[in-house]
Amino acid sequence: MKKRILSMVLATCMITTMIAGCGAKTEPQAAGDGASVEASDSSQAEAEASSENETDDENDAAKGQGGTPWVNSELKSNVTADTAVDPKDDFHLYANKDWILENDIPDGYTQWSHYAERGLEVKDQCMDLLKDESIEGHDAELVRTYNSLVLDWDTRNELGVTELQEGYDRIVAAKSLDDITALLTDEETVHDYYDFVNFGAGVGLNDPETNIVIVDTPDLLLSDSAEYTERTDYGDMYYGYRKDMFVYMAQKFGMTEDEANKCFDQAFDLETKLASKIYSTNDMYADDYYDKINNEMSFDDAVAYNKAFPLKEVFTASGYVYDGPYLVTTPDYLSYLDEIYTEENVDAIKSLLIVKYILPFATRVDKETYDKKNELVAKYFGMSGTVSDEEMAYDCVIDSLPDSMQIVYIEKYGSEEDRQKMADLCQMVIDTYRELLSENEWASDEVKSYAIEKLDNITIHAAYPDKFNDTTGIDLTDCSLIEADTRIALNDIEENKKLMGQKVDHEKWADGMAVTDCNAFYNPSDNSINMIIGMMGEPFYSSDMSVEELYASIGAFWVGHEISHAFDSNGAQFDAEGYYRDWWTEADKEEFQKRVDKMDDYLDTIVAFGDDHFIGTNIDTEMVADMTGLQCALRMASKVEGFDYQKFFIKYAQMNASIATYSDEFSQLTQDAHPLNYSRTNVPVQQFEEFYEAFDVKEGDNMYLAPEDRLIIW
Question: What's the whole-model pTM score?
Fold first, then answer.
């Protein structure tokens, strides 16, 4: 049974502003079983033989050498006790050297940071709640039951893949395209198999008040479609991991090793063709991406793209037929699908169905498979050791039952007092932004006026919502783990279908993102900043912070950063009410883009390691947010007598402290909208005279940037 098929088109195309939020890596991340990295699978790995790990470590250290103008200090091999530090040379390293040397990446993680520390603190609280039998209520019972099912290795080992065998056998038994079509369009099996199209109800781009059906492209084995034409280390990692994982699992279903290899190769060859019509990561970060995907049409027009592939029948069997609009993100993909969905490709289609059917269950079957998964994640993604079974189980709980887990957590740890304090801090930052926008010297009065109107209309969501999705339809009585997943998925699908054509419920403002994460986000579709309870702890927030620490963290790093997303190249395409609408004059747009282009050009000169440069166009929205958040906090600081700017900047740099494996760093460098953390310190501080004065930075110092080269956007 699939997980909920709600299309995350806005989570994809707004990754820099909504789901990704402030933290570059809010949870420890490695390879999941689907096309994207999943938190539920991410913190689990088992070490290879020590000799092999030592070789991998040496290779990673070699790959991570170099860097301009700063060495990548997130790779711990680049920092030793003898490494000289100077705030004028590398401010991030100066502020974080001790932390880097004192910390190691824990077992089961590919990176470690203050985000991860705070995330683990919340996770520990949640794991304690899962053991507390005294907590009453439906949601508490759901998460305890599911947690127990995950931890019940005896039952999982006994069942193995037996519950999945029938679904696998149905694919194998298919002899023709008609047989495959029957599997994809039967109401009994329509949710069990990969259907070549990702779809679900959600908010589109043109009307933020109404849920429509979004028709998107499928997830890919290599995650990024660009990897199918020009493979990088990132693609190699995913390819190796997923092929080895599939070959291992397929043998449990009755394949020989040779048959499994052939099956994967056939599936991959077919997916390579499909990937040619799917937007790449770079495409998604381009300024014109919204225009490209904003293709609303009727049901009849949407399904008319397919003559061979049974899209109309899939929608009908799934229950996703209604009278409202369908947003088809990639019409060319649907048309091309017909060229692939032919009788001559039956064997390849079957292979792709089999691969996509088997892989998602790596963490849901027996201990042997789980251990193999951890071994392969260690091999390909640089992790060593494993997290405890209790932590693994919690990851599964928050992945499968996010609303229930959040409800239980908030009942225990929610604080109306802290909630109000955060809301007040958000308002203080908004008031300061109003000053910045009013005094802006390059924007026209028309654009400044509307920007201030948008700012004044921002909704503040602090800590946690009062309303979550309805879980009363989920019953986990007397079932196995896989059956529990099936019941949860069916309930999620039924709840999602109810949204079609209905007004958006703004009370459920954290839907799709757990408030237990150490993160925050700006949502352009309702023009809101969302500061969630998961980040409201040390070292980011406490009631006894000094004014310097508070402004560095909440003023710059969190609230100031998120507000900026309302006016970056993505958020600025939405108006004060969340409508996708251009409110810029052409002259203002050109001036804004000229400044962003200047930033991109500068970011492109930064070398992370080896020959791998930063990709300015991928990360400029986050860097703009970092810079503007810092600009806002410095405006707040200017009003405080005796403000300690050294203390402020050091705290700001310490927010970004992190260490990671090479694979994690390379993945972020090429696939993430967030710059590597050391640059999120060094590049923003370079832009402001207060930094130069605080640390006596002069021309010729490595941190120096000439005034004419500085990159203030707003």
Answer: 0.91
